[in-house]
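Case study.
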Amino acid sequence: METKTALLNAAERASRTHGYDGFSYADLAREVGIRKASIHHHFPGKADLALALINRYRGNFEQALVDISAKQNLGGAKLQAYLDAYRAGMSGGKTMCLAVAFSIGRESLPEAVVKELHTFHQSGIAWLSELFELGKQDNSITGVSNPEFEAAACLALVEGAQLQARAADDLARFDIAVSALQQRINL
Amino acid sequence: METKTALLNAAERASRTHGYDGFSYADLAREVGIRKASIHHHFPGKADLALALINRYRGNFEQALVDISAKQNLGGAKLQAYLDAYRAGMSGGKTMCLAVAFSIGRESLPEAVVKELHTFHQSGIAWLSELFELGKQDNSITGVSNPEFEAAACLALVEGAQLQARAADDLARFDIAVSALQQRINL
DNA sequence: GTCTATAGATTGATAGAC
DNA sequence: GTCTATCAATCTATAGAC
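After joint prediction, the assembly is written out as follows.
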């Protein structure tokens, strides 16, 4: 594997468990097996690393949403797949979504990363809006009033559910927090 | 004002904007107007400071919930007051709930603080459970099935809504994310 | 209770050899 | 592309004078 990719993998794992301010070049060097100084060849500064990280993450995430859209037809089925994917990405409750991890370190982040963070949320909400619009029309999600509001609420719900699971170190917290939404899925 | 209190105030503000790993004794010293070394007289280590911080925060938060319970009779009115209080505590979107800020830095926190974090969530969910149970009985909140699930979902929702508002630096994101829940309030 | 002085470790980052 | 060596800055923390 490319050293650059290995560094991104290590940085993603580290920032999703410790936050942006909670990991260092020394941590990455240890994990990848090179020296601290060598990292600067691939990413001149930590800001460059953070930007590459959120960029790759957003790309992967959006691709996952496209895949779900292609595979599932009903709105409710898409929602179920979304919740499953989000849950699976938590590594048993040990890691957070990168967007959540970065949101806390916002003040330490370069402007460009904050912008990416914003775009990430925007595109996620846009995708969820279509999902709820569809679920309303095909009757596979019950009680949908305003799809846009539902989308924003859904994103907030999964991010908050993730925080609870992490604080308690118990993935079941995630399931409990999303179960009311899940019960509205009508397949 | 007591120096100790001033330090706690500074530490709360700092950790709620930068996270636990994002502030230092130097920051507090600058804000309070004493030297770094003097802080150790009041809080021997950063771990002691963190514990005192979450402890005070939890006490204040629980008192606020008691006040709401005393002032409002209907479940829906309590819920509205809860959302208002949570929103007001965000300082216009610049700060997060301490529990959210600490959840990210979990790995850096001493065991005792993690335990407090857990208790904080537990008591919050317990209070919300009673609220939804009441709202179901007095018909002031619509569509309540399982009060416990609703409580966990509500806590996740406000925490996630807060993250979105912070990431976008726009308090309106909070309002949008909670509006679907708010529309279920039937007074 | 606050100060100066200082310690030892760690931070992100750079220069230059190989 | 990776290394050694080194940098200045910052981190939490301690000792001891006042």
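Observations recorded in class. Chain A has a mean pLDDT of 97. Chain A has one domain: 46-182. We will return to this complex in the next lecture.
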